[in-house]
Amino acid sequence: MNHWTQWSLKRSIRHSRYIQSSLIHSEAPPRLSEFIKPPKLVTKRFLEQSDLLKLFHHEIAALQIKSFYPRAQSKIIAQELEQKAQNGEIDNWRIGTERGLEVSDVWTEGEYVPYNVAMATNQVEEYFHGVQKDFRKRRSSIVPSSSSSSDVDGHKIKSESSEDECQSRLWPLDLLRLELDEVWMDGAGLARSRDGKRVQGGGLPRIMIGPTRWKKGFIHADQFSPLSKGQGLFSANIYLKLPSDKDKPTTTGSSEDGDLHIWNLEIYSQADWIRYQHILKGLVTQDAELQMKLRKELGEPLRIHVEPGDLVMLCVQKPHCAVGFINGKRISLQCFIRYDMNERLLIDI
Hints:
The protein is of the alpha+beta class. Helix content is 28%, strand content 24%. The radius of gyration is 22 Å and the shape is globular.
């Protein structure tokens, strides 16, 4: 959950006392499952404006771009992040709930914490300084010099002038930002501070390490509010490493479960949103009983299978979860994308 979720959750709670009174004497409401629409996944090789429009207008539940980033390079970045995790250079990606920040199944690595955490812990200045450092770090990689040693009569001789080389590279989230700016009619770019003088982060790694606490995955929403076709909050994930199917405990090692589940819940009215708040609050509360109720009410999800290098975009106001697993790691890069009609797409985290 990001900072928009905490704001929208508080707003929903404030409005609920006014709306609930008008619902008390109304007819019995339909089941929440009646707001679940048949989900549609569009899978393409390249980003196209027409597909983005369908996603933003909720005509499709998710957009998957196969091999958006080269698989070989995805694996290299995954190895780097895996080494960071082994060295303990990671922080828990805490999520905002009505009880405050709570530990999750997700870890991250970088020069800054997500903005919602920075806001909640009074680290906003550190956040903006870290963002600049993080951009510079991500765009370079250390490559061992090929001239570091030579073989002379069977003995390794190290060259005094040899040094590891720092090479520039196109970071996957930078590639995404460039392509969105090129494809989208109104352009795309980084969100900025309120005074417009500092950019926000362009995305962070998400590292999940088995065994995950939520075996089937934690169903959640990153913004707690009804949908609108004129604006919305979306996410983009570029996958780098995935656990094997046999390590997913939701079935007996079945590959049918996929890696990401989305429930195509379409509630546009604030009144309906409040009406089902007793169930929907499970999207922003880590509560096992509420998770069971959600799964019962929401029914079967859209199951998405991904491979290293794939990009998946979805509306994070809809219930979704990363499937849990027993062993291995799932590593991806994530950013949020805010859509407002006739405006530039804003990217942050």
